[in-house]
Amino acid sequence: MTDAPETLTTQGIGRRPALIGAVRWDTVVGALLVILIGVSYSTVGGFGNALNISFLIGNTLPVAAIALPMTMLVAAGEIDLSVGSTVGLSGAVMGALWNHGVDINAIIVVCALLGVVCGLVNALLVTRLGLPSLAVTIGTMALYRGVAQIVLGSNSVTDFPQNYLNFGSGRLGGSFLPTAVLPWLVLAALAIVVLHATGFGRSVFAVGASPEAAWYAGVRVKRVKLSLFVATGLISSLTGVFWVLHYASATYSNATGLELSVVAAVLLGGVDFDGGRGTLGGAIAGVFLLGTLQNVMSLADVSAQSQTVVTGVLLTVSVLGPRVARQVFARQARLQPMRGKS
């Protein structure tokens, strides 16, 4: 009886050599994060003190929050480049409403609903009109930022209630952990369960791998994408509230360029830009790797322009790296049977 032909895995690369197969892109990113923290702790002055670590985590939380739904969206084969502008619009609305005497709890609810609307606009343009999400969200990125400027103008609002500002910038007891890390941990745990342990998560990967095949398998492709766009808009808008409270300032320009950091971190974590592959663990590692690198560069007095260049380089590497790795794995898988016969 002859051996059965070797089957392809869901990653589409066949059986890998043991050593190569054990090394995944997200594992590499996690290892790089650990190495970077270790090296920075011993070589960069001020990196290891509690105040700096608190700043690092607090400044990274906006990217870390938006990266959770963005990971799912990219895994489904779509992208949202309007997230930074949604953060800015939410902050502008928050500042304008506060200036008009609206209760802050009501403002947070309004901002949450605003995020749902922003995500829904993106979703309907993509799922109902069939427009590419890259083009749609470039357009809404400019639209939402423009609306934010109209809402608040050049004003800056800073006089928010102190207890809310304490949530945005305070720390847990005497530790280095920001208070806001607790809701983020709950949100991260929920996102991991949804993406990696539920039928909805399997549908997300199926849609990203092949929308047509997913549709024939009974997956409501448009509904899955719509829910992901709405979730991304909602989290982005709530992040806008946190941004205002963390930095104690509401301006229309809040979070300008944040979308670049979110996308770079998600792709750096091994989420395939074409969809169908990726893990939230890898994305979170990518977020904190990028955040730690930016913190180290700031401590080393590296200019903001140079930090943007580094982010762009990482974005390019994060797109190319997993693709090159999969090609290497596929080549190794094809060559292995030949080596066995030689």
Tell me about this structure.
The chain is an all-alpha fold. 73% of the residues lie in helices and 0% in strands. The chain contains 14 helices and no strands. The protein has helices at 18-21, 25-43, 50-75, 83-99, 104-127, 133-152, 162-169, 181-197, 199-209, 211-216, 221-247, 258-268, 280-299, 304-341. The longest helix has 38 residues, at 304-341. The two termini are 21 Å apart. Mean pLDDT is 89; it is low at 1-22.
Concise summary:
With 342 residues, the protein is mainly α. Helix content is 73%, strand content 0%.
Which structural class fits the helix and strand makeup? mainly alpha
Q: Give the N-terminus to C-terminus distance in angstroms.
A: 21 Å
Topology pattern, helix = H, strand = E: HHHHHHHHHHHHHH
Helix content: over 70%
Shape: globular
Strand content: under 5%
Write the layout of secondary structure elements.
Layout: H1 18-21, H2 25-43, H3 50-75, H4 83-99, H5 104-127, H6 133-152, H7 162-169, H8 181-197, H9 199-209, H10 211-216, H11 221-247, H12 258-268, H13 280-299, H14 304-341
Helix pairs in contact: 2-13, 3-8, 3-9, 3-11, 3-12, 3-13, 4-5, 4-6, 4-11, 5-6, 5-11, 7-11, 8-9, 12-13, 12-14, 13-14
